[in-house]
# Entry
Amino acid sequence: MSTNLLMQFTQALSQKTIRVIDLTQPLQASTPILPLPPDFGQSWPFRLEEISRYDERGPGWYWNNFSCGEHTGTHFDAPIHWVTGKDHAHNATDSIPVDKFIAPACVIDVTEEAGRDADFLLTCEHVERWEAQHGRIPEGSWVLMRTGWSRHGASSAYLNLREDGSHVPGPHPELPEWLARERNVIGWGSEGVGTDAGQAFSFETPFPCHCHMHGANKFGLASLANLDQLPPTGAVLITPPLKIVNGSGSPCRVLALVEG
Ligand code: MN
# Structure
């Protein structure tokens, strides 16, 4: 065994004592986009346009143009995304210090509760019960809400739109500020289309996760998948967004490193 930490790490990868889990949903035209009320600007869906495919347009090569909103599919939310985070230094996809893109994760499993109630909200009390079992959330950790929601894929059950909007589980209005202040987490991750609950537009503080996390210069991850393959603690996430200058977020290939 090498005494060099990085050599030990790559050996563990090749021996599969450290495994790499893909937490990313496929990015394609059917990737769900949350429609906003018609008065607001709208995000483009993902679109792929072939430039050439070993044909008269380019005999030896295949490539595509693509377009989409920054917040499409599995993606990273930067603090500048929300008005509460607009004045932080280094708050955009190109300026966030890159060491922030590797961080441990705590995974809170509420699959049962979310399966019973599409409007389930994760409370501070629930997180404290989780901590009693797994230990205090370490500073600088991601908190990932495992709901099983990613199983809906690109079906209509994913956005779960009704007359009164989307119904998807998320954090209780009090939780994001508590996690940011009391636990100093690096951010919040969810299996839903966004980091907030589907009904969060109607909360007393609308979109409390966006408001308080980005207000505290924290990050977000949305549309995560395969959270069932992560342990409650001990996984490490790799989450670099594209280096879009002054970007508010970006689709992201989110990977997790897991021991054993
Ligand atoms: Mn987003």
Summary: The longest helix spans residues 124-134.
